[in-house]
Amino acid sequence: MSAAESTAPGARITQRGLWFEEFQIGAVYEHRPGRTLTEADNVLFTTLTMNTQALHLDAAWSATQPGFDGQRLINSMLTLSTIVGLSVAQLTQGTLVANLGFSDIAFPAPMFAGDTLYAETECTGKRVSKSRPGEGVVSLTHLGRNQHGVVVARASRSTLVRLDPEGQR
Fold it and tell me: Where is the MaoC-like domain (predicted)?
């Protein structure tokens, strides 16, 4: 008998996101741990996406700009992508069908290398799809805060999510 066969039987739980029915309108889902963004993250993301803005790549130029504290800014698209990424395991892993769109995107405060990004998501609405059986539209508002609790990004998102194939669990 192998070690695996000799272990006591127990539940097997696979991590997944939420089925449509599990989203609660008004609930705020806090995504932890956060992610500390590094200079390497910023340069890699910025160059991979062909964004040649000096404020992300040129340390000497950035040091001369007011409000930059002598640093290059973290690419705002990296900030947004990381906020959404931080939400995946808790909300949409294996249950998302598609992103339908983003709106009301804002970056009210800058992120710099070494800052830690924490994300939270509020479910702001949901409805069963009229045209896609077994799926529903879920509206989300993502919020990113730095390690000091300052809001650095906000975005509304519309998603298409699977209904629970086995009904209410």
Answer: 24-139
Confidence (pLDDT) at 2: 54
Enumerate the β-bridge partners of residue 157.
102, 140
**Superfamily designation of domain 17-37+74-162:** Hotdog Thioesterase (3.10.129.10)
Over residues 71-128, the pLDDT tens digits come to: 999 999 999 999 999 999 999 999 999 999 999 999 999 999 999 999 999 999 999 9
- In angstroms, the CA 12 to CA 32 distance is 23
Length of the chain: 169
Q: CA–CA separation, 25 vs 105, rounded Å?
A: 20
Residue 57, SS3 per DSSP = helix
CB 96 within 8 A of CB 17: yes
What are the two backbone dihedrals, phi and then psi, of residue 118, each rounded to the nearest 5 degrees? -115, 140
